[in-house]
Amino acid sequence: MFVILVYDMGEKRVAKALKRCRKYLNWVQNSVFEGEISETNLAKLKMELDKILVDDEDSVIIYTLRTTHYSKREIMGLRKGGQDLII
Amino acid sequence: MFVILVYDMGEKRVAKALKRCRKYLNWVQNSVFEGEISETNLAKLKMELDKILVDDEDSVIIYTLRTTHYSKREIMGLRKGGQDLII
């Protein structure tokens, strides 16, 4: 399945979260990741993030897409991530 | 069409960007918005955001979905936005 993941983490935990997310997904920009991922790996990633995130400070949003891909992604402004790799 | 929008703005510009995005989309969490939007309104929103964002500091990512909706959205940790309104 194809997921889009966005996190909002406290500064101290960003590096850890980035590392975990990059293990399974493609880094698009700042706190945004995307990619094909198996259910097993998504469960693993969620467990790993769950260990890092502080419940009343951080958040992670995971969109699972019905189709294998979105139809368009536009980026305005700064480009920080490792995008342009998969599209 | 259905879009997911994520911004990463400098602190000074967050309030302005939030206001613009909420005019057209549903606020999910922190810097994440989603919703049905017409092409005309998306063009308007992009123009409004373009006026706010500082090119080498801020970024906005807009995903346009092929289907009218994603199949699942999961939120881990903190809930800040006005979610649970549309699903």
UniProtKB/TrEMBL annotation, chains A, B:
Mg(2+) binds at D8. It comes from the Bacteria. InterPro entries: CRISPR_associated_Cas2, Virulence_VapD/CRISPR_Cas2. CRISPR (clustered regularly interspaced short palindromic repeat), is an adaptive immune system that provides protection against mobile genetic elements (viruses, transposable elements and conjugative plasmids). CRISPR clusters contain sequences complementary to antecedent mobile elements and target invading nucleic acids. CRISPR clusters are transcribed and processed into CRISPR RNA (crRNA). Functions as a ssRNA-specific endoribonuclease. Involved in the integration of spacer DNA into the CRISPR cassette. NCBIfam families: cas2. Homodimer, forms a heterotetramer with a Cas1 homodimer. This is CRISPR-associated endoribonuclease Cas2. The gene is cas2.
